[in-house]
Design goal:
Layout: E1 35-39, H1 50-58, E2 63-66, H2 73-84, E3 91-97, H3 99-106, E4 113-121, H4 130-136, E5 150-151, E6 157-159, H5 166-170, H6 176-184, E7 189-190, H7 191-195, E8 208-213, H8 221-230, E9 235-239, H9 246-249, H10 251-263
Parallel strand pairs: 1-2, 1-3, 3-4, 4-8, 8-9
Antiparallel strand pairs: 5-6, 6-7
Length: 264
């Protein structure tokens, strides 16, 4: 967490007081603004952050919407961590859905992450999986909305949401045409990724923030409340009626929370 910066203003008075040599240059330099790195989750892609990117860019933040491979928590985290190591200065790392598990793992391998923001996201503890956390609380209607798994050459399977069920399941509070477009551009997740056991989480050592909606049908809101409280989130925002893609339907609120995290 960044300390508050105190700026020293030197005022020269006309009554003859001398300003000590070098005092005018003794002002504490401003801390660099963090780069915001956004990590999408399953069945989404980097463009799902467009509204948030626009808001943060208007405020002058450098923003990167990373491409999450969606192949496995450890391997995806390694890909994100590699990106983080190329960024000079502090980073606020933001994850949506399954991306929350990825950012918590990635931040343990990068020393420039100052804050974590969980956007309708998983924040697993060591030994937990995304599937286990979903099953712990009632409310998810995702399993029957999934399409038949797509077999992969390595013996694994890719998961998609059925296109006709996608808008209601994933994005019920965005315009219908936009929800249909999101269904067509959804990125699949490898089934084993959702069952992969997490390692030591970064949220135990890095301050976190959280935001989610009460109408989320993918991750039960009770699960996200549990995870935010367990992580001792500095601030948790709950948006009444928001779907799983709260960053699409409520980009202003999500960007505001990220700005809050970036200023601490």
């Amino acid at each position: 967490m960044l300390p508050n910066i105190l700026r020293l203003t030197v005022i020269s008075c006309a009554i003859g007081f001398a300003v000590p040599q070098g005092l005018a240059s003794a002002a504490v330099p401003a801390a660099p603004r963090p780069t915001i790195v956004l990590v999408h989750g399953a069945f989404a892609e980097s463009a799902s952050w467009n509204g948030v990117v626009d808001e943060l860019a208007e405020d002058g933040y450098a923003v990167i919407a990373a491409a999450n491979p969606l192949r496995g928590v450890a391997s995806d985290a390694a890909a994100v961590a590699a990106l983080l190591k190329t960024i000079k200065g502090p980073v606020v790392l933001v994850g949506h859905s399954y991306g929350g598990a990825v950012i918590s793992a990635a931040a343990t391998a990068a020393d420039n992450v100052r804050a974590l923001v969980f956007v309708a996201a998983f924040a697993p503890d060591a030994g937990e999986s995304c599937l286990a956390l979903t099953a712990r609380f009632p409310g998810s209607t995702l399993p029957p909305a999934l399409a038949a798994p797509v077999p992969l050459a390595d013996g694994g399977e890719d998961l998609y949401i059925q296109p006709d069920k996608f808008p209601q399941q994933f994005a019920a509070d965005v315009p219908a045409a936009q929800g249909q477009a999101m269904a067509a551009t959804q990125r699949p997740i490898k089934a084993s990724a959702l069952a992969e056991i997490a390692g030591a989480p970064a949220w135990k050592t890095i301050p976190s923030w959280a935001i989610y909606g009460t109408a989320d049908l993918n991750i039960p809101p009770a699960a996200m409340d549990f995870m935010a409280q367990r992580a001792h989130a500095k601030r948790t925002v709950v948006i009444d009626g928001a779907s799983h893609v709260v960053m699409v339907s409520h980009p202003h609120e999500v960007a505001a929370l990220i700005r809050d995290a970036a200023k601490r």
